[in-house]
Amino acid sequence: MFTPEELAKIKAEAKAEAAETVKKHFVEKALADIGITTAEQAAEHFAGKHEAVDGGFEVVTPLPTADDEFRETDVYGLNVRVNRSGTKVELKVNERWEERLLQHTGSAKHSKFVVLPNSLCRQSSAKCGTVSCRVSHLVMKAFSVMPEYMTDVYFTAKGPTIMFGLDLVEHLDGLRSNAHLDNLKWASKQKFIQACAKRAARLGIPLPV
Known about the structure:
Layout: H1 4-33, H2 39-46, E1 51-52, E2 58-59, E3 70-75, E4 78-83, E5 89-93, E6 96-100, E7 113-117, E8 130-134, H3 135-143, H4 148-154, E9 169-171, E10 184-186, H5 189-203
Antiparallel strand pairs: 1-2, 3-4, 4-5, 5-6, 7-8, 9-10
């Protein structure tokens, strides 16, 4: 149970956080409307410029941080984009970007993931037309180039049948819940080959030559 003072403090903090979230949303939307999607583009566009406001004051237009930079990638034919910090994933629907809920088991041993609609994927969960994707994989695919020893197996005509569910990246701090680009690297060739061999043996299918 909370005291009245504690409840008041919690409500005030929640209100302030909500206001900051709304403000950030409209700043990002305003920048996107003029074609600015990265911190570098914003810095170049607003260099030396100020925005005039009522009362004679001038304020510098807020710029997105590097962690908020979005880049696009694809998953099973879907267009998605993710930010550098791995805290936001958006799906393109009818030419509009819609934010997807990031899900997590609550344990640092497990990766954050998003559920995407895809009834055509052979790995659709319970044939209900959805697939789950690790956020760390999306970050690496969007901001980095997948090694050749992975692409030969990953990009097949039927999609990542062997690769599905495999952990493609390593987390430098050991926390799978931390999907920031600076905390990720592609799994080594040795680990990748071992994981593929184990998966192929379990499924009873040959590895691609």
